[in-house]
Amino acid sequence: MAQHPFIESLQVKSLGLFDDLKVDFTPGLNIIIGPNASGKTSLLRAITFCFNSLPLSKMKYSPEASFGITVNKGDDSTFMAGYDGFTKGNDTYQGGDINVGKSFPAPSYNPLSGQVPYNLLAIGAHRYFDYEAIKFMKREDEQSQAKYIYDQRNSVQIDKPTLPSIKQWMINRYFQIDKPWAEIEKANWDNIMGNLSQIAPDGYSFSLKEIGRDLEPKFELDGNVCYLEELSSGFKSILAIVFSIVQWIELVNEGEKRLIENAEGTVLIDEIDSHLHLSWQATIAPALSKLFPSLQFIITTHSPLVMSTVRNDDINSIQKLVYIKDQGFRGEKIYTYGNDASSIISGTLNSVPRDIPSDNQFSILFEMIDNEQYPQAFDKLSELKEIYGAIPELAKAESMLAFLAPDDDND
Question: Are 275 and 253 in contact (CB under 8 A)?
Fold first, then answer.
């Protein structure tokens, strides 16, 4: 069955944390989870190396290092891009050399900027912007140079993101969309502006109200009017993601592929939950997939609510980076779709859903009940109710004591 092109897999050896890593991806949403220092961001960075080897000149790596992606062209035929070992080693930081490696098996492409026939966008975790005054429209990058520029910058964007000017893009489009040559720009503008409420938290109405003579975009949020820079950090983060994707789509594609519903390529987003309220975390990934149906997303997150929105199937996947002795890191599919946050925290993330001292206090209470130390349990329950109030765990303990304890133990 025909589908849109996507990155089918990543292979990394002897690079950074990864001795030997292979991760398979699906064409839709791919969520990557794992504890800090497990290599989630390094995985995204490794993908960008397959499009541009320049950042390796500022890294420590061995001659045996290799990295490559397999791209499914949408008809089940594939090509690879990357290096399989280097002809010249670099064992120091800030080496300055751009080393050449042996390319992966044919048909393959070396990771030199602009040479890989596939579009990639990387969006880092820091997505905040301050006020800026816009005085006039600004010339945009030429389409012929856009892919080269994105390929060159993507590795840097993972670690030190510099956002395109959201306001400048809006001003440019606002004054272009009535021109006869801007049919696609107008279609994309109408699509995004008509669906702004989709990227807002559930229950919020959100729309662009106007762009006035002062070139300041005004939005309406649940009946309240505010300027772009007055929006919360969550709204800024979301708008930065969405408008960055649209700008990239229009610059690197040609013809009908410049329409956001037809655009192809892969978007990497590090820590998508950054700046987002809980209600947003539960909607952002599906919203992006709906807005950009032909794009592949590879996203890292720490959020149980993001994890609960993705299921493993032929289109979407959620994987956890785990370290296995003598094998290194591996991507293992996990099943968190529809699970509540507490279950994901305790089960999938192997953590406790509250601070450890509090969790220890509740454990002591339930151990007293299990050991039939009912008088002590009643005293402990009273102590904890003074501290924590009427929370579900204490209500459960109270019910257990009412059922199990002899009446005289509650005197």
Answer: no
Tokens describing residue 401: 């004591």
Question: 3-class DSSP state for residue 217?
Answer: strand
CB proximity list for 155: less than 8 A, separation 6 or greater: 45, 48, 49, 52, 54, 55, 122
Q: Please give the Cα distance from 145 to 142 (Å, whole number).
A: 5
| Residue 210, SS3 per DSSP | strand
Task: Give the single-character DSSP code of 140.
Answer: P
Q: Using an 8 Å Cβ cutoff, are 246 and 184 in contact?
A: no
Chain CA centroid to CA 107, Å: 30
CA–CA dist 384, 358 (Å, integer): 9
pTM given for the model:
0.83
In whole angstroms, how far apart are CA 26 and each of 198, 219, 315?
24, 36, 5
User: How many CB atoms sit inside 10 A of residue 145's CB?
Assistant: 11
List, in order, residues 6 or more apart from 116 with CB less than 8 Å away.
50, 51, 81, 109, 151
Enter the tokens of residue 228: 């772009």
The residue written with tokens 């009446």 in the block is: 407
Q: DSSP of 312-358, one letter per residue?
A: -SSS-EEEEEEEETTTEEEEEE---TT--HHHIIIIIS-S-SS-HHH
pLDDT tens track, the chain, 411 positions: 448 999 999 999 888 778 888 899 999 999 998 766 667 888 999 999 999 877 777 777 777 788 899 999 988 889 999 888 776 655 555 555 656 777 777 778 888 777 889 999 999 887 777 777 777 766 666 666 888 888 888 988 888 777 778 888 888 888 888 899 989 999 999 999 888 888 877 777 888 898 888 888 898 888 889 888 888 888 888 888 898 999 999 999 988 999 999 999 999 999 888 877 777 787 888 889 999 999 999 999 888 888 888 888 889 999 988 877 777 778 888 877 777 666 666 666 656 666 778 878 888 888 888 888 888 889 988 988 888 887 878 888 888 888 888 766 555
Write the single-letter amino acid at 249: I
